[in-house]
Please model this.
Amino acid sequence: MKDQTLQIRTSPHLKRPMATNTIMLHVVLSLIPVMAFAVYSFGITALLLITTTTAACVATEYLLNGKERGKQNIKDWSAVLTGVLLALTLPPGFPLWMAFVGGMIAIALGKFVFGGLGQNLFNPALVGRAMLQAAFPVAITTWTETLVNGRFSHIIPSSLTIPFLEPIKADAVSGATPLSAFKFDKVSTEIQDLAFGFTSGSLGETCAFLIVIGGVYLGVRKMLNWRIPVGILGTVATLTTILYLSDPVTYPSPWMMLFSGGLMLGAVYMATDMVSSPLSTIGIWIYSFVIGLLVVLIRIWGGLPEGVMYAILFGNALAPILDKSIPHRIYGMSSKNQNKNRA
Amino acid sequence: MGIYIESFPSSSQEVIEGRAIDLANATAAEILSGIQNAGIVGLGGAAFPTHVKLSIPEGKTCKYLIINGVECEPYLTTDHRVMLEQQEDIFMGLRYLIKALSPQKVYIGIEANKRDAFEKLEQYKPLDLAVEMVLLPVKYPQGAEKMLVTAITGLEVPSGKLPIEVGAVVINVATTAEIGRLLPHGRGIQERVITITGPGIAKKGNYLITIGTPLRFILDQVGAEDIKEVFMGGPMMGVSVSNLDIPITKGTSGIVAFKPQQTLENQAEYACIRCGACLDACPLSLNPSQLGILAKNESYDLMASEHHLLDCFECGSCSYVCPSNIPLVQYFRVSKSIVRKRQAKAKS
Ligand code: SF4
Ligand code: SF4
Model:
């Protein structure tokens, strides 16, 4: 046999064919139907909004990390994912300059200050969204009607407001979301409209059905921990069913709760962010339950119509505590050493 | 500069042929010395001298004798072949082992995907031998001693201890067959079954190979072409070789050859994304993610004192699953040797 240079490396010599960049890319790909539907419902404005936040996130990631690391980091697709997710939480007519600021904040404050990918305590997209909500409370609750004529040729006017100069007029508020309609006026929305997206709301809040499909795809490919959406939605469904059966007039129906607002998007795509959710399986179940419980509490008894964002951010803060405090069984440890937890 | 060579404390074997051990009349001690003289070691890959393993320490008794028919690594099929072809040797070896250890229960553990081997053994099982055959889930590293003891008896081997702590002795099935084949005739070990496989090999299969055969000669016979990486053992724990002019040893359970396209070169490493895959993969339920972070910070002592580093038996499952390509087990190997050195220094 010919002599050849053999390569030496340490075992294992096999590798599961699933890399972090592949996972992130697939999450982005699975959101394409949701994005396409948003563009269908809200027109070119939606496309502009998604492009703006994504560009802001990618540019920020690149600039903050310098040339070398920035290039490497962009290849992991996580900045793109943050940009897309952020856009999906915003209302269609949201001013683009604000969206750009939101994208920068998401990466800078949500990720970079913690030390980059893997170190962040909170889901970066939600950090961006929370900051925008605090800074621009009016713009972020200004909803436009879905499926308006001319949506493919005209941009929603509020999108093009000039930074800091034009205030959003409060009377621009049109098309209340299903949740606010119920909360403040006790108007219920037809369930099929909710599931298939013919209501007003944020870009990615309207079509629950497509989000479920994306989630099932990722769950089957093991790129998402199915326990999180199942845990959150299960908790919400159980609690609201109990409430609804006790008093159907005061409380919204479980269907309405499950399919409206950001719950689907949050449960499938935000709470499942691996970095900001607990490591252990028991931790994951507790985390999901707490988020579900908080969603119900805020939506029904809190002052806001929507509570998914705060519920998930709270869950994120809880994750490291769960990792530290859940006693964990290690093989072959006597019971007195067992309490040395693993995190 | 000088090199200090320290001999392995249990390298106590010299093959001495010609002393047949008669099963009916031999004492336990005679069987052990027969095994020692035959040069038999654990053929699963660890190559630990079998007579040392069978010497039960003072104060312990062997309750369970477990014959390990679970392949120690993916790709390897030597144990499967032995179970399909050498049933009589296996049961003869088992008789010697039972006589040497007087266990209360005897098990043979086989993976569920090797039903043919299970049925063959069931068919050849002598009526007077009380052996329970157990089918086990196919899950690497099921063939690791501790995992096997737990799967069969439900007992966990305490941290840092051997299976005998819970009364179990685990012997590989090929080792058992070798005992049954050699002892009645007083012969010594000369050859072993080796799986030769991998994309770089034309004639893949299990071969009976004389110990000491040069690797280069073997690869020529099986048609190895365009190979970039060769390792001895399985793909999860095997050691890659830099030179083909080395001999086969008793501990060589497999030879795997990869072509250039199969080798894991230049995989980009990403940050840990806390996906939890390594936690689910670790058979001991350690936290490889945390251990990896500590290793990067060189907090070796903390790894050992709080995170059970020394329990890790380097199965490689964590590195295999990690989507961020973090060389976890590679870190742990280095960390373990540093911790061991520090501990030895502290003692002396
Ligand atoms: S190599 Fe990894 S998976 Fe295997 S025992 Fe060690 S830490 Fe656990
Ligand atoms: S498998 Fe890798 S990326 Fe996932 S938690 Fe473990 S170390 Fe982190």
Observations:
- The radius of gyration of chain A is 22 Å.
